[in-house]
User: Fold this.
Amino acid sequence: MRIGKRRKMSGELRVRRVSSWEFDLILREAEKYGELSHEFFSIVEGEYRDVYAVNESVWKLVEKLPLKPYSLGTFVGTIRVDDNLVEKFYPNIEFFSLVKVTKNYAVLGPKASFLFTTGKDVPKRAVKKLNWQGSRKILIYNDLGDIIGIGMINPRNDEKFIKNLKDVGEFLRR
Assistant:
């Protein structure tokens, strides 16, 4: 759990619980892959609305603090308006540790997993297991069961069958 002081920004940060509309956005994203196993989220509003998974006991402590934190719990994604002016929840990889994944995932072997975590796309022959139910985005696992990223499936291209959208090695490449 990370609780820190408020960042100096041009606008005021606001910490609050998620609204029912925001929770619905989070729930809809989780349902593309399985079942959400966590129910308590908070929002830190600044330039974007950052979503954090917290538990109720932590939230009760935060409510009593004289200074509001700029982050708390586990950062799981951001809610923002897309190019079509539609409000969406954009999850990060950590979000999926809160989802019981049952669909829209691929399992890669060791070599393909390594290449995926270096930003490479995945050919169809490197996919050991595929559970795809129509979603364009799929979760990528290594053969040990670790989530290593998020990809976009391209059924028309066997060489770039899964396009790398986000992976756990991204942070190290910055």
